[in-house]
Amino acid sequence: MSHVHLPGSAAEAADLLRNGGWLVGGGTVVMPRVNTGAVPVDSLVSLRRAGLDDITVDGRRASIGAAATLADVGEHDALAFLLPVIRSIASPPVRNLATVGGNLVVGQPYGDLAVALLALDARVEVLGADGVREVGVAELTVGGAEVLTAVHLDVPDSGTWFYRKAMRRRHNSAAIVTVAAVVAVGDGVVRQARIALGGLAPRPVRAPAAERVLLGQPFDRPTVEAAASAARQGVTPLDDAYASAWYRDRVLPVHVRRALLGED
Fold first, then answer.
1. Fewest C-beta in 10 Å: which of 9, 56, 190, 249?
2. Where do the FAD-binding PCMH-type domain residues begin and end (predicted)?
């Protein structure tokens, strides 16, 4: 039987972790492993009472506590653009428990919110022995005695946000390919393009070649199709129980195109 700690703050949680043990947010990944004995753990440090579940939006700037649940994010009016992302993840009971922080550190092909946060150029706060550091999603690593505390992002302008997740089943399935993007158009051409991909590598990745194809060009079908083809550059898809690397490589351009053009 593991001993469960319920610290009242992130700092207290980090102190407890220095003595070993596992950090628990919603427990949707950790607890099945603990309960089946797959991972022997003597100590669990839960963030349930650590005060890390606030969500605040001031103008376009949003801050989301790492212990906020996916359901909390999906129910926040100012973050309504993320609702398709949230609804594509697991099932309602899981979303009621799973946390933003947990979704950021879980390995692909899970972690669809992490893909979205990468496309949004979000910044993540991590508390450790040397204080708080802030990193981008792509550079995020969390040590054994560190606690993810918050995520900061800018809410995208209307019409600039795109998202698509390809799955084996319509609901409650891991990703074959996930595409999240922010594409802003001005004076008839693309002025900003950030495309993030999930389900392909251990962590979400950007698609810089596709972004370069879009920049400075009209946001039309020919340009999008060229960008979709370029998205394969530098990406080495993985094999898993959901899809082969070969299949992911073949369908990646299809889903990038569908995401950006809003096609089914």
1. 56
2. 1-158
